[in-house]
């Protein structure tokens, strides 16, 4: 085998040119013993915490990640995880509970294989399944009798069957007897330390009853509660409902914020009052848009599938359209506020405070800030950002921006409060400066203009 060994960390990486072809008519016999209890495919914001949780429970874990840079970041203890998970990661790596590789053939050495890769949408809001298809193909190619294969990436209903069950059957496996397949969507909120991963219930559905029972045992290695739904489709749809529910309610909160602004009512006062009702209401807060790879993406997997079946979902369509247009609403508000001061966008300097999609995470995925910056630039504005999580960002038009380390010297005509990290210093903002508060935090910015 041609390989490259990292002597410093004692981790063996497969040579990038190595190609493995598996041609099998009949599935191999089940292994008497596997080298690993769990293999996690993809070590991003879902996969790494999942691998850490299993390793912390005492399981022997193999983490598969094709990005050498990501592997190096994890090995150097610089991964973007909660502080408590960083301590667990250090224990796991030091205690040999967690091994890392980019060799896909190593997946055959694990009793269970969990797929945790991104499922984004493209610029036209169409599901991009390239990463998921490649990951599932690798899992099927390395599949060994006796394994439990679990998909956790949010996707369309029927995907687990299309990408795992059918290809495994074509290889000669009898799913539910020779090998086991299940779906259990991730439930991780990046940057949120309020919930231990083991305490968040997991929803699971199997290709067969036997598959679901195997998946239950796998999840119970670290999860305290597992909820069964009886099928792959029901488990897949559950995650779509969870995030579509949030998307629709965020769109509603944004709409109410605009209504309250027109009537000179503080939206947070209204939301706080409504939240005193002990039943039938859940508080959602308005903002400049929605980021991350869940809320702005997941409902489009459902809508895409429904369009193929010519099924209408008008409420969801309207909500997702409203969410997509929210960053442009911010730009229009900037134009209006500047116009009230007798200034146009073309001559303005605008500074965004915080560009991550949520506070206290170094994550730009689908962040509304990127579209806001690009839109402002397209109207001639000079733009900058303050966010120490990102030294440099590249906008959609290829323009590169650097973090403004001395915001007072930027001399902004208008400041947009987009994302407020706990570590950010705002002492440089004076009461005389023009500020639009897209976070609706009236306590911290009492003199700011809201959206």
TrEMBL record:
<dbReference type="InterPro" id="IPR028359">
    <property type="entry name" value="UDP_ManNAc/GlcNAc_DH"/>
</dbReference>
<keyword id="KW-0560">Oxidoreductase</keyword>
<dbReference type="GO" id="GO:0051287">
    <property type="term" value="F:NAD binding"/>
</dbReference>
<keyword id="KW-0520">NAD</keyword>
<dbReference type="Pfam" id="PF00984">
    <property type="entry name" value="UDPG_MGDP_dh"/>
</dbReference>
<dbReference type="InterPro" id="IPR036291">
    <property type="entry name" value="NAD(P)-bd_dom_sf"/>
</dbReference>
<feature type="domain" description="UDP-glucose/GDP-mannose dehydrogenase C-terminal">
    <location>
        <begin position="351"/>
        <end position="442"/>
    </location>
</feature>
<dbReference type="GO" id="GO:0000271">
    <property type="term" value="P:polysaccharide biosynthetic process"/>
</dbReference>
<dbReference type="Pfam" id="PF03721">
    <property type="entry name" value="UDPG_MGDP_dh_N"/>
</dbReference>
<dbReference type="InterPro" id="IPR014026">
    <property type="entry name" value="UDP-Glc/GDP-Man_DH_dimer"/>
</dbReference>
<dbReference type="InterPro" id="IPR036220">
    <property type="entry name" value="UDP-Glc/GDP-Man_DH_C_sf"/>
</dbReference>
<protein>
    <submittedName>
        <fullName>Nucleotide sugar dehydrogenase</fullName>
    </submittedName>
</protein>
<dbReference type="InterPro" id="IPR008927">
    <property type="entry name" value="6-PGluconate_DH-like_C_sf"/>
</dbReference>
<dbReference type="InterPro" id="IPR001732">
    <property type="entry name" value="UDP-Glc/GDP-Man_DH_N"/>
</dbReference>
<dbReference type="GO" id="GO:0016628">
    <property type="term" value="F:oxidoreductase activity, acting on the CH-CH group of donors, NAD or NADP as acceptor"/>
</dbReference>
<dbReference type="GO" id="GO:0016616">
    <property type="term" value="F:oxidoreductase activity, acting on the CH-OH group of donors, NAD or NADP as acceptor"/>
</dbReference>
<dbReference type="InterPro" id="IPR017476">
    <property type="entry name" value="UDP-Glc/GDP-Man"/>
</dbReference>
<comment type="similarity">
    <text>Belongs to the UDP-glucose/GDP-mannose dehydrogenase family.</text>
</comment>
<dbReference type="Pfam" id="PF03720">
    <property type="entry name" value="UDPG_MGDP_dh_C"/>
</dbReference>
<dbReference type="InterPro" id="IPR014027">
    <property type="entry name" value="UDP-Glc/GDP-Man_DH_C"/>
</dbReference>
């Amino acid at each position: 085998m041609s390989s490259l060994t990292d002597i410093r960390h004692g981790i063996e990486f497969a040579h990038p040119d190595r190609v493995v072809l598996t041609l099998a008519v009949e599935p191999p016999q089940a292994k008497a013993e596997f080298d690993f209890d769990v293999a996690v495919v993809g070590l991003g914001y879902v996969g790494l915490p999942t691998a850490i949780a299993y390793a912390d429970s005492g399981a022997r874990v193999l983490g598969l990640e094709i990005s050498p840079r990501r592997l190096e970041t994890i090995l150097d203890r610089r991964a973007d995880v909660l502080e408590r998970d960083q301590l667990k990661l250090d224990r796991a790596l030091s205690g040999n509970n967690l091994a890392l590789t980019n060799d896909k053939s190593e997946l055959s050495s694990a009793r269970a294989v969990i797929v945790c890769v991104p499922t984004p949408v493209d610029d036209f809001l169409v599901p991009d399944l390239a990463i998921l298809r490649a990951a599932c193909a690798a899992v099927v190619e390395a599949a060994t009798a006796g394994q439990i294969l679990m998909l956790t990436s949010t996707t369309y209903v029927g995907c687990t069957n299309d990408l795992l069950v059918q290809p495994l059957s074509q290889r000669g496996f009898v799913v539910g007897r020779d090998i086991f397949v299940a779906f259990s969507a991730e439930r991780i909120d990046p940057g949120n330390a309020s919930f231990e991963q083991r305490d968040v219930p997991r929803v699971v559905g199997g290709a067969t009853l036997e598959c679901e029972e195997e998946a239950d045992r796998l999840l119970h290695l670290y999860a305290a509660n597992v909820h069964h739904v009886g099928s792959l489709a029901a488990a897949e749809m559950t995650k779509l409902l969870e995030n579509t529910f949030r998307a629709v309610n965020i769109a509603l909160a944004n709409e109410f914020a605009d209504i309250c602004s027109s009537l000179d009512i503080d939206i947070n006062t209204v939301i706080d009052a409504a939240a005193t009702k002990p039943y039938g209401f859940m508080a959602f807060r308005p903002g400049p848009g929605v980021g991350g790879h869940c809320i702005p993406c997941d409902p489009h997997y459902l809508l895409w599938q429904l369009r193929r079946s010519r099924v209408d979902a008008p409420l969801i369509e309207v909500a997702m359209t409203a969410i997509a247009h929210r960053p442009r609403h911010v730009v229009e508000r900037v134009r209006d506020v500047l116009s009230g001061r007798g200034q146009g966008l073309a001559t303005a300097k605008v500074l965004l405070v915080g560009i991550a999609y949520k506070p206290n995470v170094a994550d730009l995925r689908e962040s509304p800030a990127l579209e806001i910056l690009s839109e402002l630039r397209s109207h001639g504005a000079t733009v900058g950002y303050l966010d120490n999580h990102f030294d440099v960002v590249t906008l959609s038009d290829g323009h590169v921006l650097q973090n403004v380390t001395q915001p007072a010297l930027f001399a902004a005509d208008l400041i947009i409060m987009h994302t407020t990290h706990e570590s950010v210093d705002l002492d440089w903002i004076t009461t005389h400066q023009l500020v639009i508060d897209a976070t609706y935090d009236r306590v911290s910015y009492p003199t700011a203009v809201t959206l």
